[in-house]
Design brief:
This protein is an alpha+beta fold. About 35% of the residues lie in helices and about 45% in strands. It has one domain: Nuclear Transport Factor 2, Chain: A (Roll), CATH 3.10.450.50. Helix 1 packs antiparallel against helix 2.
Amino acid sequence: MTSKNVELVRGLYSAFSCGDVGAVLGALAPGVVWNEAEGNRYADGNPYVGPQAVAAGVFARLGGEWDGFAVKMDEILDAGDTVVACGRYTGSYKATGKPINAQVVHVWTIADGKLAAFQQYTDTLQMARAIEP
């Protein structure tokens, strides 16, 4: 049987894939602590605290800088109040046209039915190479 926490995380990825940023932000706790992977260009704001900081510091930048940016999770692991999602990022950097197909792991912490913390691990070198002219 799938836990409520896994379903919460699955719902977030479903909303993200549909472009429903409102639903994604609605799943985040008001004080969510969001950390991009070290070495990622979007880690410059770590930690992002609160849904609006995530929206402005991460989502708006991804949408503005990438064509077809997507995340597809192949496996979601239930560890109680922690949920681990493993998959890939795809898309092309607009300024260079270079694509990525980068491995990614997301670690989510759930509290009171909301996503309270996020830690990203990804192939930051592949992303950096896509951005390089």
